[in-house]
Predict the structure.
Amino acid sequence: MKERILYNKRIVKEQPQNKPSGIIEMGPIDINIMKHKLLSNPEFKAELVKELKKEMGLLEGTLDGIGLPFSVVEQKIQEAVEFTREQEKQRYESGILSLSEQLKQAKEHIKMLSEDLINKNKMLAEGKYTQGTVTIEQIKDLLQNMLQTSEADELRPQLNDKVFIDPTGGKVLIGSEIVIEGDISDRNVMGDLEKLRNLLGKK
Amino acid sequence: MKGTGLDIGTNMLVAATMNADGKPVYKKERDAFLKLTPKSEVNRKSIKLALDSRKAPYILSEGEFIVVGEEALMMANERNVLAQRPMSRGVLSPKEKDSLPMIRLLIKSLVGEGDQSKLVFSVPATPINSDFDIFFHSEVIKSYLKELGFAPTSINEGFAIAFSELLDDNLTGLCLSFGAGMVNVTLCYEGDPTLEFAIPQGGDWIDESVAKAVDENPSWIQIEKEQNEMDLFKPADKIQEAIAIYYRHLMEYVVNTTIFELNKRKLPAIRGAMPVIVAGGLTLIKSFKQAFELEIATKKFPFKIKEVRIANEPLTCVAHGCLMAVIL
């Protein structure tokens, strides 16, 4: 009551002098004070909860909008949670397996490279790479030269565009076969063959 | 000795084998066919009667009579139509897929079925100024031969001529095969084919050019050219005159192109004079050798020419060279 009087006094006190008489202008309302007042009233609070539940359609333990009982909704949520968990688990396991496979391959590759390195070291130690006078720099120069003069064409990646596809689809003509007679020649094949073998043997 | 040599030409297919006496046996067939479609049952019987009476080789396929070889060409002329050919300018074409079963049939008729025995077949060199698909051609042939039970490999046509004709010349010479579809050129030096190329003009080009000039059927020109014992230096009529003119044009173009290609490449240091071997159906015409010698005499080659020689058997020497390559 005391606060109410003070409030009214403040209203009267702050009333502008140039306003027409009979009109009372309300000052700024303190929402927090108002909320506190309302919620401290048990009857109002019960009424408010009831109104809110009604707004949300949660009366009598049902979802009015959907028409499903809470227990079913709860079960559905549980199932969804379980499904998501299972999916996540599978994804995780699959990832682990993939990583494991990659790791295995990488280990094999490292093993191969290590063996290669050991062999190369062994060869170096035996002096097989240093027998000539060719240095790494010279090999680099040589490769550079080969690339520039297109001598290393076979080293470049090649796209194989030669693919043979029989356009007939293997269609075979059906019918009697044609007989073709042969003519015998007097050419000395064995003599020619002997000459040819000698010529090619010379090379 | 087992093995088969096979020359696959635009105009002629030739197979070479050896008989029990060690003699070579050549089977030839014209690479042409003609389809005859009966219009009625009576027509079917009359076509069959006509084909049987002239002993024309034919097969029946899906109700059609397919006449093959020389007879196909003759009958096409009688009917004033064009005989079909599975090959053009030396190679099979993916576009002519209807003709492809015919080449399979003709090959089978010539070589039969193999028992995984070796077979060497000729392929043209890569043509100049042309985008022919040599790969497709050789793969189709290889595929058919494998189906027939052979173990096939290919050899360049000009190199096959060297195996047949340059045995007394240390496998050194310039080999030119004048075929219907193209002219194949190979420079063979001590057994090494140092230069290979093909010129995509040949007998068909002559036939088509003459046919246009005199308004005739190209098949008729072909028969005129091949069967009338025509002499290049003594043409008997207007058609023969036209044939002689185009022959000389082709020879000139071949010689000029060969010199151009020889000059373009890095050749081995050739000592001595080289023989020039000419083979193929076009060389069968009378005075070919003399006309070609005249053409060569007026041009400058990067090496000396010893002589111009026509192959011992111009139509079978490629198949013979293939046979030599098989039994080697």
